[in-house]
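Q: What would this complex look like in 3D?
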Amino acid sequence: MNMYSEKVMDHFKNPRNVGELKDADGVGTVGNPICGDVMTIYIKVKDNIISDVKFKTFGCAAAIATSSIMTEIAKGKTLEEAEKITKADVASNLDGLPPQKMHCSNLSSDALHLAIENYRKTKEKK
Amino acid sequence: MIYLDNAATTQISDDVIKAMVPYFSEKFGNPSSIYSFGSNVNKVIEESRNIIAQIIGANPKEIIFTSGGTESNNLAIIGIAQEIHKKDSKKNHIITTKIEHPSVLNTFKHLESIGFSVDYLDVDSDGVVDVEQLKDLVTENTIFVSVMHANNEIGTIEPIEKIGSFLASLKHRVYFHVDAVQTYTKVPIDVKKANIDLLSISSHKIHGPKGVGALFVKKGVSLKPLMFGGPQERSMRPGTENVSGILGFSKASEIAFKDMEKNNKHMISLRNKLIDSIEKNISDVILNGAKGDMRLSNNVNISFKYVEGESLLLYLEMEDIFVSTASACSSKKLEPSHVLLAIGRPHEFAHGAIRFTLSKYTTTEEISKLLDILPPIVKKLRDMSSIDKDTDMTKFKETDEHV
Ligand SMILES: Cc1ncc(COP(=O)(O)O)c(C=O)c1O
Ligand SMILES: [Zn+2]
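A: Here is my prediction, written as structure tokens for the whole assembly.
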């Protein structure tokens, strides 16, 4: 097989929660098409809990797999718990990533944190 | 398995293996030995030299065996630059193109770092080198020019005959090196007619063994060697010869040269079918490289917009189809292919480029199977993608670091 773990390949092959949430409460986009990875994470929030998460990603297998696993980790967590998710959590949930691909796991935690920030800001305005 | 990465390396043909085997076992002698058990082995090397010389229109004495394309390029470039600079220290200018293989580009960067002055020629949107720019840049201090015969990523064939005759017309001597690794036994070449002084070729791209290649060095051209030792290869490349490798290389050359026309016809028909069907059945694709006669017979390189090359490559691998991508977000500085940037592709499309390279072994069935499998994979990745034709790319600024 290639350089990725079975877990990464599973999430890459059958990504969970792909798509957009049209009525999302928070949206976070990180990355850059110039670099080769762009990730958008959509969240629904109910009673301070992430009730639904979806993603769309342009990128490598690591970027797609980390987006997918991130949606699984974040779903059902309180916002405070979700904010504590780190890139290391993402990588370990995928049984590791090749060292040169670690930056891709930064993206998914960053995108989630941005989506939460976006949710908090829009709530304040209301 | 459907193997479509023949620009990376090729399957060794059975006839080549068969020819090599005795030189690993009963015929193990050292070609430099005086007794016949050794000197008979030397005959094999000289026959191999003859075969390869004939194919490129050279004299056998002008062929130096090396460990492959990379070494041939290094020996040619460093060897001529240092030799000429040593004789005339004013001469310190060297020229190549922006789309060379790393074994040329990084050798130029090395020479730049030790004080040589370097110019890198632009190419047009098909990847064809700008000959007019070359004419402007050449000065009396130019030592040599290095231009590849065809590009390994996008398959564009360069006008080397035109460049050779321009350089030959100059009053001062400017040497000409050609990296012909991708064209050898695919595009006919005559080193004399094309006014070439140095030409690099490699065995493993033509169904021969890995780790062997050759450099044509025109009679009268002297190079400073990279290594020092015994008298082998006229001391330009000392060390006991890779006998089985050299024999395998010449056997592969012989077979490929004999069947050149037939193989090209076969590969061109599959190449065109692949390009035409992808363009017809998948939206938002761009062919990278020249069309028609200016394109290598076995190369297809296509950017699938809004998807990333590695993902596409790995989905194809799951179907047992092997292709290549030049882009990889594997380092902090995420530069896509220098070749695709040189032909003016935006970064986001350069990241979605896939190279399919065929061989004489590629079948119509394999191409048909690929054409069945490809559209749903591209669709799946596009459905997943966060960018599409409505995405405003200007909101993403170019950054050095991948965040
Ligand atoms: C254009 C070109 N030059 C040089 C090389 C290097 O050849 P080798 O692998 O024999 O060192 C290659 C092979 O990748 C090539 O495509
Ligand atoms: Zn990535």
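A: To summarize the key features: Confidence is low (pLDDT under 50) at residues 398-403 of chain B. Residues 260-281 of chain B form the longest helix (22 residues).
Q: Very helpful, thank you.
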